[in-house]
Amino acid sequence: MTLAEPTTRSDSKIRRRSQIDVLVLDAHYRQALAAVRALGRAGIAVGAVACQSEASWAPALKSRWCRFAATVPDFGHKGDGYVDAVLRLLDEHPVRLILPSHDGAIQALRTRRAEVECRTYLPLASEAALDIAASKTRTLALAETLGIAVPRSAVVHDEADVRAALKELGCPAVIKPINSWGDSKGFGMRIGADAVVSVDNALRELEKIHSAGLEAVIQELLTGRRDAVSIFRASGRIWARFAQTSYREFPPLGGASVLCESIPPLPDLIEPAEKLVLAADLDGCSMVEFRRNRAGRPVLMEVNARMPGSAALAISAGVNFPDLLYSWAVGKPLQEVTSYRVGRRLRWLSGDVWNLKCVREGRGRPDTPSMTRAVATFFWDFIRRPSQLDGVDTGDMVPALYELQHGVIGPVLGRARRSVAPGERQITRGDK
Q: What does the pLDDT look like over 207-230, one tens digit per residue?
């Protein structure tokens, strides 16, 4: 078997049909599991695909609703190998909809979009719209023309630019890539936002971004509440919107939400989010993210042109984005979602544990609370207001167990073994 050849799993636990309706990619992501469950419960035959490095534990592959499972090469190592394998799967197992869950997979598929769309429906916006969403500078420039609040920003290329930007914006500030995924060196290296407190600190981060083949921007640091609006748009019309707030993220500055809650569709969030999605012509599912400033006004951060990682929260609140995407793909009449349940909370336990690790390692950083406060909040949230645990379903527990083993138990036990056998660790390193 060559690297580009997909592998499929067939065992007695997977019920096969001659026709799979939907193939969900990136099976180790939370939104992939949420989509497999939502579609499966609706009676839609759904399969899942994982990259080789994650296939042993990918939760969506372990779900009882997954009727077909396959493994393909990692898109991070060789985008063409990943797309070749996906195309071969589509030839061997025709589906009505293919559903990517991650930015890197979307970027890889975009390079050969026509080949994918000859075989199935790819629920993405136009290339022009995706170009806007993928670029933070283009997104913010469009938002400014629409009167939407954006952070003060400066594109930086070298030390002189960094010094000028920090002089204007002050420290601490935030440095981030203009595009989170590059194509010059594959699609696997994702560089997120980071807080910087000095010129030297910023230059180190700039070098990291440049080494990934990306350009950088420095922005003012906003530490207010992180709110977001997920929107589904098709045929020039918005059919659903869902607002949420995030209490913690991993990593702490602008990472994936690990504790979030559904909130009312506040006009100061919904209006700019809808205005931006319509102006960018963003069909499909997208999430518009904001940070509130000191005055409480939401300031646009970015747009992700895909289902959010916290898709399970929207689904439990009554906004079923996977079902909307499927209806759009197969031409079923779309029904507008006019309301949802407010006050639903979702907690990603593994991510919350890793958030604590980030807090411990990032003590003193401007985007990080004290360790005492973080630990107290972590445990108090179990008592004060219990949340639905992301991935946990009493009727489909195997995915949660695999995710917990991979994300928490395995790393903790591995760290414990290394701490009690320092001599063995040194020998191992020497052998390498």
A: 999 988 899 999 999 989 999 999
